[in-house]
Amino acid sequence: MVARPPSSQLPQEGSSFVKARVRYVKPPAPGDVLTSHVYEQPDGTKPDNLEHVPTEVTLTDLRQLQGQSFDLLVNGFSLVNFIVPADIDWESDDKVRSQYYPLAADLLKHHSGGSRIHVFDHTLRLGKARDDSDAKGETPGNRRIPASRVHTDYTTHGGVARLKALLPDEAKHLMKTPFAIYQIWRPLKEKVEESPLGFIDAATVDNKDFNVHRIEFPGRTGHNYALSPNPNHRWYYTKGMEPDEAYVFVEYDSRKGRARFTPHTGFKDPTSAPDAPPRESVELRALVFWENDVPQAPALEL
Ligand code: OGA
Ligand code: FE
């Protein structure tokens, strides 16, 4: 007979996992490219050709996973401790650059083993994840609301393009050895309750789940991958994530054979209190270089 744990030890919704709705997309018809226009078009055309697929998924609370550790290189993300001074002036981008970026660079150096870190931007998010929030969520600039579509932030070409745009004089040289874009995401000052960030374990994503998504900003075109559903995806989040915790995650890696793009989204936690405050979070992106590793050209295929 199979021994069963007493019912008090069975996984409980809201403690070890939560069932919630996330939004995937339908893959485009052959020959089409998923495209969003961040601002409504003057001719009144529909701002995007995406068909969303709202899907209920089960997200496991990382805190309940005793003994299972997540590896950045395999799963694409990890939950780490990160103590940040309480008096950072988040309203001032200059202060964030001088007070927060150096701490973030140290943390990334520690977790990546890279030889050089170049922090290049940060974004504050305030609000609740909503199903109709795409356009506002993708507004350029560094004040946004939580995202509500399953996505990655870069593509195979996007990572290289970002390096060339940020460090034009050095890019040719820096592209010869492995490089990546990593992110640090954390609650700004208070515990996150209502709209946490969820991740798909990168090891459970198939290349066919990635759909190139073109995003037209005024004067600039960006690309990411919008994910289509796959029952193999394993989802994770952290219930009541605290400001001394952070996610480090892989947004792009020039190497094949490891976690390269870690899909994520904000979502409404249906077990959070109805009067839970809107989420406030900060995300920061950095190029990571392994200049002493074996030379290797960036892989431009998935
Ligand atoms: C990100 C992101 C969404 C959110 O950090 O890249 O998509 O809701 N965040 O915080
Ligand atoms: Fe993102």
From TrEMBL:
GO terms for molecular function: oxidoreductase activity. InterPro entries: AsaB-like. Coiled coil: none annotated. It comes from the Eukaryota. Belongs to the asaB hydroxylase/desaturase family. PANTHER family: BLL6449 PROTEIN, OXIDOREDUCTASE AN1597. This is Methyltransferase. It comes from Apatococcus lobatus.
